[in-house]
Write a structure and sequence with these properties.
The chain is of the alpha/beta class and 459 residues long. It has two domains: 189 residues, no CATH class; 183 residues, Rossmann fold. It has 18 helices and six strands. It has a six-stranded parallel β-sheet. The protein is elongated and about 80 Å long. 44% of the residues are buried. NADP nicotinamide-adenine-dinucleotide phosphate (NAP) binds next to helix 13 and strand 5.
Amino acid sequence: MTLSTYFMEATYLIASILFVFALKGMSHPETARRGMFLAEGGMLAAIIGTLIGVHILTSAWILAGLTIGSIIGAWMAIFVPMTAMPQRTALSHAFGALAAALVGVGEFAVRGGEMPAITRGALGFEVMLGALTTTGSLIAAGKLQGIIRGKPIQFKGQSIVNLLTFLAMATFFVIYLAHPEDAAVFYTLLALSFVFGVMLVIPIGSADMPVVMSLLNSYAGLAAAATGFVLGNNVLIIAGTLDGFSGFILSVLMCKAMNRSITNVLFGGFGASIAEATSTVDGVMREISMDDAAMQLAFASRVIFVPGYGLATAQAQHAVRELAELLEDRGVSVKYAIHPVAGRMPGHMNVLLAEANVPYSSLYEMEQINPEFPTTDVAVVIGANDVVNPDARDNPKSLIAGMPILEVDRAKSVIVLKRGQGRGFSGLENPLFFKSCTSMLYGDAKSTLTHLAQAVQHV
Ligand code: NAP
């Protein structure tokens, strides 16, 4: 081994250690930011090590890739809003998976059939997973952005078509293993994988898209690990495997929080039925004035804020913190209840509230806070809907039956901040809004919270 190869292997070791610590850091909101920095450091170490250790024929392509990638990355970081983070992540998966597939194509073009059987197998997996993740992630991004219809796209005999596409892909994979020099077989495998990615994701509704993306993230990681086997690159094997399995665990956790099984997400056509579902609800929605709401809050002893997707779209995180501080100054105990799938991505509410410097100690997870609602004077629901829908608990026929919820309806009084009669992500009506303990305060969450804070100061 040359000195530069030793250097490269050392940077790979450092990168792998940093990736492990990064994942550990990201498992908790307080240390997540540090985790991201560690991951970035690991990635930088791996890139520098590779550039120094691998004999590069011409640096022009490397520079071109670096420039284009940096421009796209910087653009996404600066201009994509927080609420569009899921589709941004889907695009990142598509790019990563495309890179893995293209490396596979490159290796095939250079080495053809001249590689050991095990490497050939890894190359087949890399190209298959990379290609299907690329198109699957692009469809997911399109659905989340609203460019493609969010409702499941279904047609007669779809399961059969999907099964046949999968079987054709698997067959060409086996033929490729037997005839690794046959370019027609290899490129047919590639094409079928691109098609299968589309077929896999179009029947899934956008309500389930974050889970699908987390699964695709897992596939992209496994494609990268397979690339590592083909290239004999240790850091790719380690990072890809970490990504693959953490993505899978995240998918399982998200499904648990939504009371769904992964098979159900992938084959259930969930979004279709939910989007068209209607439920009949008795009662009327009662509106409350700003002054009455401020009065209730100012004279309460215990208040719980329940943020949801509307807080994110309104960017009301600073406004809620300011109102909470005013209440605390008056001696009111203020807590925040965080549902695991509130918003549009895992940890969405934690990130927003941390950005507004809400102390982490004021944030309570669902299991911790639910027993506290009966002794709470006012629960303030800020742009949350599905995660506080009591039908999930009380109505076994509801399409979200069994999904764990924040039990705000058990509080003495509930004030719901939303713009109008808009439904949540699931498209279902929410009986909470019609209960006698609930009153509605209409308007954009940020401006409502700002006006509430002003009104509280005058109480
Ligand atoms: P939600 O059910 O989507 O409801 C959001 C509510 O916010 C809407 O009813 C809307 O009503 C209101 N709203 C929107 N913009 C607003 C604004 N500017 N000001 C005030 N209110 C506003 O949100 P959620 O309760 O947070 O539930 C999250 C949903 O996403 C769940 O169904 C969950 O399963 C799904 N999901 C989340 C994840 C995740 O990882 N977090 C993953 C997969 C799926 P108006 O239009 O009337 O204002």
